User: Fold these one by one.
Assistant:
Number 1:
Amino acid sequence: MNKMTFLFLVLTIAGCTSKATSNETQVTDTIVATEEQPMQQKECSPATIGDIPLPDGFERVPIADSTSFAYFLRNLPLKPLGTPVYTCYGTEGWTDAAYAVIDGYAPGNEDLQQCADAIIRLRAEWLYKNKRYDEIALHFTNGWLCEYKRWAEGERVHVQGNKTSWYRAFNTPDYSYSTFMQYLKMVFNYAGTLSLSKELKKAAMQDVQIGDVFIRGGSPGHAIIVVDVAKDVKWHPGDRCFLVAESYMPAQDIHILINSNNYRENTSPWHLRDDVMRSGDGYNFTTYTFSGLDLKRF
């Protein structure tokens, strides 16, 4: 099997389900909320995720460590509200599902940074920013571990059929951002929802945290990431709400998803934790259906 055939098989197995063919995206809203509460928001154009208005009665969970992944995600910059979602081909993506577009992490002009890849990139960007190079290591779908530090030290990856190995390409270390992005493109080619789901650990929906991932690996498969969490201090103390972000197929801008559930007209883009827990295996995240059992953590 040549490299291109292997790449095709990997992307077929590990990629997201497409908008046109996925049965998961044909969601019927049958969940009925047991209680309603005011969730009004103010109109604005937030500069970061942390500026997105909260539902009435909620406060953001505190983040003590400014070097944490949670802090990084909450402070991701946003493009002005109403900015379209664009795909790697320059066409408009799923703008109708987006509350806002995250700025600075565009997919480029290749169909590589899809759903799991976008999450991998955000995590890797945070690790790279904090020079935690040893922790940037992702498995390919075939189980082989691709370590950024070896790449930066001059090694490169050889793929032949389903066999993968390192070889020495350069004798001078290079930790530049451009080399880092070359590494990520290699990972995007051979990793996906299947490999990422195996790397993550199970998380409890009751304790949903910033940085958690809803993921179903395989084909079809999809993944979205929790980018902010708030707690109810007024209506139902102890409840939480959260924001999620995604990329899709074809690769497109990472965007914050709206809450399109018709029984929560005033919550968008926030999702209530207890709604997910009550839904069993059928909570509608606008572009895909997940359950609390699909929640995982780095």
Number 2:
Amino acid sequence: MYFTSLPDHNKPGFDEQLHFSSFKKHNIVFNALVSSSNCESHVGCLSFKTVLTGEEWYGINNRRIAVRPGQFLILNDAQTYSSSIDTVGKVQSFSIFFKNGFASAVFSDKLYTEEQSLDRPFYNEGQVPEFFQTLNCTEPGLLKQLSDLIFSLENEGYDSNLVDEHLVGVLQYLIGTYKSETKRAYAVNAVKASTRAEIYKRLCVAKDFMYSCFADKPDLQAISNEACLSVPQLVRQFKAVFNTTPHQCLTRIRLEYAAGLLKQTNTPIHEITWKCGFENMSAFCRAFKSEYGVQPHNHRRIS
């Protein structure tokens, strides 16, 4: 199923139960250009969230995450969450909801060898990986998968067989992301696997908090409070897992956002300075040149 508009949950007579009942029966793609949207709380299936323009906020487990272009978020099956869009200009929201049986079949195909799959081609354990539900960067491989899917939908219309073929590729990529995240969790300095997984989840909370709220200039104490880790433990484990400190990560996030504004908009540099949480334009220009090798105005000209 393919939709080019988001449902209005506040519309009189909107049957939310009927609307979401189809989500476990079909693969569903949303590709909508909207200026506002709000869904306070519902339980979804395994889903992929991104935006092509603007930003969309999600509420998960008492935390808020902003999804912006170049990022994606995976929500697990039966996860309760909220979503909202309320910004100046239009937001191109893109979501995929995977039918449980479809997702588990792709997972099984990645789990077993060709010989095992050949011996039992229709065997499906009904399992899907438990994703970490953290922001990830949209790498070129995934971007190609999404671009092909969108091109097909916009130019050839909705064909369930063709769309499902594209979704197999998207899911295979996401499972690769899951494996990379699991491998990264092993870098946590802890003996028990369960402890490593829990600390990694909290480090992801810290990282997502910085990506979502970088303009508010959160300090180490605020980041550690959000992640429920002490400041020393946060700094030590963050460095071990991500090969950078929280401060360095936060600075890089702010500069990446600034670089995007310089490339894609005509926003004056002094406005970009405060939008990215820098104290003044001189500090911003020094940091930007240190990271990119050129002054902001030159970066804009080159871009």
